[in-house]
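Worked example 2:
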Amino acid sequence: MAGGGAYQESETDGGVTVRYSATATAIGDDPATSNNFGRPQGATGTHEVIVHGNSAGEFVDGSGNYIPTGQIATAVTENPNYDGGPITVISCYSNCGQAAELEQIMGVQVTGFDGPGRLDGDGIPQEKP
């Protein structure tokens, strides 16, 4: 169960699984995304978007398939718990590309990682060296 609470599930227009919790939206059902979604969430005080990212800064599913930024934005806005506030993207290399586009679409501050990253066991975003 996500962060110790209940969650809802849907999917993107591209067929990628989306899960919603009180403080996060996870896109993808691969083990890494599921592990991050299962950790405590909300430590950043922002809405957390959990999705894979590649070294080009693109959002991808667990198989490496590109996920358009618009589908990420739609997934977030469809989360009934999203309040329109700032977003922390829990995604490798998220500051290197699509996060800026997501910020533009959503009209809110979006932060992320410059390199590989994840949530630690306490739900704190950690960038790997």
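The longest strand covers residues 8-11. The chain has a mean pLDDT of 87.
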